[in-house]
Amino acid sequence: MCAVAFSCKPVSQITIEILEPAEVTIPSYIQAVSFANRSYIPWLAKDPSDTARRSVKDLFVIDTLISNKLFLGLIEALSASPLFDLNNPPIYQLRRSDSVRFPDLLTVDQAGVICDTSQTDCLISLEGYELIDTVFYNYLFYSDDNYEVTYLLAGTVQWRIYDGIYGTVVDDFMINDSISWIMTCDILKECMDELPEAADAYREYSYQLGFKFGQRLTPEWYTARRFFYRTGNREMIKAAKMVDEGNWNEAVNLWKSISESEKDIIAARASFNIALHYEMEDRLIPAIDWATKSYDRYKEDYTKQYLEILEQRKLNKLKLQQQLPLEEIH
Description:
Elements: E1 3-6, E2 11-20, E3 33-37, H1 56-79, E4 91-93, H2 108-118, E5 122-139, E6 147-163, E7 169-185, H3 188-194, H4 198-216, E8 220-229, H5 234-244, H6 248-258, H7 264-280, H8 284-297, H9 301-323, H10 326-329
Parallel strand pairs: 3-4, 3-5
Antiparallel strand pairs: 1-2, 2-8, 5-6, 6-7
């Protein structure tokens, strides 16, 4: 974990990098992954609302783009995680000729056969999708630009994760999302010319949907803002200068001495700073202890909020320990 400080009085802001657990906890025995595409074939469906006005050739091209980019986005997101073995993962084409958007679950035997054949531990399946593109036109009466044209892509994609070892469904998730491009201009044709081609729009949209599902399965780093107190007495100012010079350990020793001060607000500030130091080291239990001492000495609203943040981080760390090897968490 790293921190960057920005000096300002009476506090200094810092940023720290925190690892957020994945939304879905994949069992630790799952490493090798296979993929399947179970979505229905749009040009064979009986009455698909999203295939109106498109030829079989166009549908074939768009369906191919959607499928390829969904899996590309998913696999690239998962590649950032140490959880999965993604060395040339197989993608099985189990396409359906019915008109059911989102099918029933695979049976335990069906999922097991695929995992046994591919020698993988689980199957991540694209179960189905429904994507619709629409163009909206608006005439602008009170603008120098006369026209506003919006190209909207919206839809739903369903993914399931089948445990090939125990025959359970690890995750069953539907993503609902949309993306739009808006152009304004004097001449309607100019707006239309500036909009992306349908193929390019579907490429971008499908990749994003696949990537988002991959993020659901992958722990992710994010940047959080924190601050520490610089003032209160001369010793607090001295400790802050130590931090400016990168001597956090020396500052902590001084803050521990200051935390015994008879002045509650100064003792609370020193204890708060110590809590921050321990959080930066990912030692959340002592961080909570010192934040609690701070709040007990002086009831500061932010300290209460900080305690809630630390408690949530402690729960997240427990979840991370189920998702990652210990050496990956720090």
